[in-house]
Amino acid sequence: MTTPTTPTTSTTALTSPTRARLARAAGGTRTRALLRDRLALTGGVIAALFVLAALLAPLISPYDPAQADFENALAQPSWSHWLGTDDLGRDQLSRVFHGLRASLQVGLLAVVLAFVVGVPLGLLAGYYGRFADSTVSRITETMLAFPFLVLAVGLAAILGPSLLNATIAIGISQVPAVIRITRAETLRLKNVDFVAAAVANGGGDGTVLFRHILPNAASALTVQATVGIPAAIIGEALLSFLGLGVQPPEPSLGVMLSSAQSFLAAAPWMAVFPGLAIVAATLAFNLLGDGLRDVLDPRGATR
Amino acid sequence: MNHYLLKRLRQSLITLFLVSVVVFAGVRAIPGDPALALAGEERSPEALAAIREQYGLNDSIFEQYWRFVSHAVTGDLGVSARTGLPVDDAIVGALPVTVELALLSLLFAVVVGIGAGVIAAVRRGRPSEWLANGLALLGLSVPNFWLGIVLVLSLAIAVPVFAASGYVPFGVDPVDNLRRMVLPAIVLGSGLAAVVMRQTRAAMLDSLSADYVRTARAKGLSRRQVIGSHALRNSLVTVVTILGLQLGQLISGAVVTEQIFVLPGFGKLTIDAVFTRDYAMLQGVVLCTSAAYILINLLVDVAYSVIDPRIRLGGAPR
Amino acid sequence: MTEPVLKVSDLSVSFRSGGRTVHAVDDISYEVRPGEVLAVVGESGCGKSVTSMATMGLLPPTATVTGSVRLGGRELVGASEKELARVRGNDLAMIFQEPMTSLNPVLTVGRQIGEVLRRHQGLSRKQAAERAVELLDLVGIPAPRRRVGEYPHQLSGGMRQRVMIAIAVACDPSVLIADEPTTALDVTVQAGILDVLRSLRERLGTAIVLITHDLGVVADIADRVLVMYAGRVVEHGEVHELYAQPRHPYTNGLLGAVLKPGAEGKRRLPEIPGLVPSLEAQPDACTFAPRCPRATERCTAERPQLDRAACWHPHEVEAR
C-alpha cells in the first residue's frame, strides 16, 4: 500500500502556487513540529520515569508488594496507602511499581525476540526475492492468520501459562510487522546507488546486507520498536488479566485489574490506578514514538 | 471473478492449509501423551484406549492429519472433553454472540473513526483537529479491557444505564439485547476507531491536496461534494485496507471483551477451553477463528477492488 | 468591438509565509472578448499560473488578492466561496497542466462530466449521462458511448485532457482558462488538443485564456499575447505585431531564439542569461534590468509603466 505521491519536479520548475503551497505546509508543520517536540519530550520524560520506577521498585516501594494485611483490606487511598489496598490488604502503590517491572521486562524482551526472528527473515525476503520472498510471505501470512490472542492462548495451552510464554507469544505476534518493514526497507535500499555500487564492487552478500542495508534500515526499525514496546506492555497486561501471563501472587498490572473485577463496586480504586499506570506508560511510549517517527522516518513509511 | 481475485483465493487456500497444519501440529506438540490431553479429566486406561481408538492415535501422523482435515471440512471437529458434546455444536451456539459483537463494534469504529478522521483533516489546525487527534491517541493507549472496566464502573454501576453482563438473543428481546451489547461494542470498537481515524485523516490530507480535488473545486462543486464524493471516496481504499489488517485485533479483543462482560461467545469458549485443557475444543475454535479471519481478509480484498476500479479492472494498483 | 467578457484590472497576489511576504503577481490587467484567444506567456514562476488560480478564486487562504476580476457583470475578487462555486465550472472554467492526475481515479468519466451538469444545470442523472456522451463526442473522443463508462486509468493522457476539456465546456462557459494544457503531452497529441480548443472557440464562441511557455503554440492559436516577467506584464499586443516587432528586450530575447535560423524545432523558451529575480523584492525598478542588455541607471531607479511594452528603452519599430 503506497500513498499517491504528487510528481516531484525540481525546485526551480515549481510554479508559484506550488511554492506557496509548500511554504504554507512548511509553516504549518513548524508549529506542529514544535508541539510534537514538546509532546515527544513529555512522553520521553514520563517513559524514563516509568523505567526508573520499574528498576528501583524494591527501593522506592513503601511496602512489600506480597505482604497481606487483612486488617487493612480494601482500604481507600490514604496517606499511608496512596493508592489504597486490595482485597488482601496489599499496598497498591508497591504492587504498581513491581507490576511495571513485569510490563517493561516483557515489553523489551518481546520486541527483542520479534527483531531476532523478523529482521533476518525480512532481509532474506527483500534481498534475495523470488523463492525466498514468496516463502517468507507465506510464513508471514500464516502468522497473521492467527490473531494475537489466539496465538497466545494456543501457546499457553501448549506450554502452560507463564510470563515467559506470554513474552514469547507477544514477541511472535510482532514478528510479521518486523518482517514487513525490514523487507520493504531492504527492497528500497537494494536499488539505492551506494548499495548498488557496493554490489558492483564485488561486496559479498553478507557485507552488503550488514554493512550497507541494515544500518540504513535502522531508523525505520527504531520506529517499529517504539510502536512495539507499548503494544507489548498492553499485551502483557492483557494476558495476565486473562490469567495467561504473570501468575498470582506475583504482581502485574494485568493481574491487579483481574482481581479488581470482583470488587468494582466496593473498591473501584483497585481497578482505576493500575489501569491509569498502563495508560500513562503506553501513552508516554506512543508519544515518544510519534516524535521519533517524525525525526527518523519523515516519509512516515510505517504501514 | 478476475485474475486478481483468483490469485487472492489461491493464496487464501494455501494459508488455510498451513493454518490447519499448525493447529494440528500444535495439539500434537503438547508435551506428553496426546490421548491424555484429549481425555481431559477422565484418565482411566480404558478411557485412554478408547480415545486412542476414537482419534486413531495409533495411525501414522499423515493419516491422522488427513482424518482431522477431512472431518473438519464436513463440520465434524470432534467431541468436547469437558461437556461431551460435539465441538461444532458449541461453536455454532457461540457464533451469533461474537458475530453480533463484532458487527456492532465495527459499526461503531467505522462511524466514529471515519467521522473524526474527516473532521481532523478538513479542520486542519483548528481545535476540533486537536480534539480528534487527542481522542485517537487516547484510544490507542487505553487498553480495551481497562476501558471495559471503567465503562462498567461508570455506566453500569454508578449510573446504571446499561447492563454489565450476560447475553439475551436479539430475537428474544431486542431492547435488552442492545442494552447489554452497547458497552461491549464500544469497548471492542474504540481501539479500532482510533486506528481508522488516524488512517482516514492521513488519507484525507493526501487526497485533499490532490489534483483531482482541485479539479472538483474548479468545477464549482459544493464543499460537501468535494469532500464527500471526491476526497473521501479516494481515502476509503486505504481505510478499508487498514480495517482488514486490524481484524485480528478485533478477534483478540473479542476474547477479552466477552470475558469482561460475561458473553457466551467464541472468546469465552476459547478461554474456557484453555483452562479446562479441552484440546478438541481448542483445536476446533482456533481453526474456525483463523479460517474466519482468512475469509474476512479475502472479503476485504474484494471490497476494495469494488472501491478502486484500478484493481477491479486489472490496472496497476497505484 | 464587443464588450470584454472577462476584465482583470490591477490584480496583485501576495503570499505570506513565515513572516515574509512574496509578491507573486504585481498589478496586472488584461481583458478577453468572446471568441478571442489570449495567450499568457512567460518562464516558470513568472506568475502566470497564480494569475489564473486567482481569477478562479482557487488560491489557498494564505494568498492575499487585490484588484478586480469582472466576469460579465460580476466581481469575483472578494466574492464568497458559495458565489464563486456558482460561477466556477459554469461561466468560468479551467483545465490544468496535469491530465494524468486531474481526474478522480475512482469515478467514471461520465460521472465526472455529469457531476458538473447536475450541479449547474440541474439535469437528472439520466440527462447528464446523455449529455456526457455528446460532450465526449464534441471533444473528439471516439466511441463516446463506451468511453463514458470507463475510468481515467483506462484512457491515455491525451484522452484524459480531452475529458478535462469536456468537463470544462459542459456548461458552455463564457471563458475557459487553459493552464499549460499541452505541456504534459506528446507533441503529436498536442496538435489534437489545440484543434479541439480552436473548434470550441469557433463553434461556441468561448473566450480562451491560454497559459503557456510554448511560443509555437501561441503563434498557432492565439489572437493576442501577454508577456509576463517576474509577476508583471512586460509587453502585450496582437500576436502578429508582437512577433514581428517585439518592443521589450525580454520579449525580444524570447523570440530571438525561436526566430533565429537553425533553431528550427526548438520552440521552447530560450535561456536568457541571469536569474529570475526573487519575488520577495519589489523594487522601484524594472525587474528585468539585472538581465537586460539595454539596461541603464534609470532602469534600476524607476519602474517603467506599461504602454505596449513596460520598458524605458524599447526596441524601435523599424521597417524591415
From TrEMBL, chain A:
Q: Which UniProt keywords apply?
A: Cell membrane, Membrane, Transmembrane, Transmembrane helix, Transport
TM annotation in the entry: 39-60, 106-127, 266-289
* PROSITE patterns xrefs: ABC_TM1 (PS50928)
How would you describe this protein's topology in the membrane?
Answer: Multi-pass membrane protein
Q: Where in the cell is it found?
A: Cell membrane
One Pfam family recorded for the sequence = OppC_N
Entries under Gene3D superfamilies matching the protein: MetI-like
Q: Specify the ABC transmembrane type-1 domain's residue ranges.
A: 100-289
Which InterPro entries does the annotation name? BP-dependent_transpt_permease, MetI-like, MetI-like_sf, OppC_N
Q: What is its main location?
A: membrane
- Coiled-coil regions listed: none
Q: Member of which family?
A: Belongs to the binding-protein-dependent transport system permease family.
What is the name of this protein? Answer: ABC transporter permease
- Give the originating organism: Streptomyces cavernicola
UniProtKB/TrEMBL annotation, chain B:
Please report the record's description of how this protein sits within the membrane. Multi-pass membrane protein
Classification via InterPro entries: BPD_transp_1_N (IPR045621), MetI-like (IPR000515), MetI-like_sf (IPR035906)
User: What are the alphabetically sorted keywords of the record?
Assistant: Cell membrane, Membrane, Transmembrane, Transmembrane helix, Transport
Recorded hits in SUPFAM superfamilies, A to Z, give:
MetI-like
Q: Which stretches are transmembrane?
A: 101-122, 134-161, 181-197, 281-304
Enumerate the subcellular locations listed in this protein's record, separating them with semicolons. Answer: Cell membrane
**Which part of the chain is the ABC transmembrane type-1 domain?**
95-304
Task: List the PANTHER family hit by this protein, alphabetically.
Answer: DIPEPTIDE TRANSPORT SYSTEM PERMEASE PROTEIN DPPB-RELATED
UniProt family annotation:
Belongs to the binding-protein-dependent transport system permease family.
Name the chain's protein. ABC transporter permease
Question: What is the source species?
Answer: Streptomyces cavernicola
Recite the lineage of the species. Answer: Bacteria, Bacillati, Actinomycetota, Actinomycetes, Kitasatosporales
From TrEMBL, chain C:
Query: What Gene Ontology molecular function terms does this protein carry?
Result: ATP binding
The UniProt record lists the ABC transporter domain at 6-255
> Where in the cell?
Cell membrane
| SUPFAM superfamilies listed in its UniProt record | P-loop containing nucleoside triphosphate hydrolases
InterPro entries, per the entry: AAA+_ATPase, ABC_Ni/Peptide_Import, ABC_transporter-like_ATP-bd, ABC_transporter-like_CS, Oligopep_ABC_C, P-loop_NTPase
User: Which is a Pfam family this sequence falls into?
Assistant: oligo_HPY
* Keywords linked to the UniProt accession: ATP-binding, Cell membrane, Membrane, Nucleotide-binding, Transport
Q: Which SMART domains match?
A: AAA
**Membrane topology (UniProt):** Peripheral membrane protein
Family membership noted in the UniProt record = Belongs to the ABC transporter superfamily.
PANTHER family xrefs:
DIPEPTIDE TRANSPORT ATP-BINDING PROTEIN DPPD, OLIGOPEPTIDE TRANSPORT ATP-BINDING PROTEIN APPD
Name it. ABC transporter ATP-binding protein
Q: Which organism is it from?
A: Streptomyces cavernicola
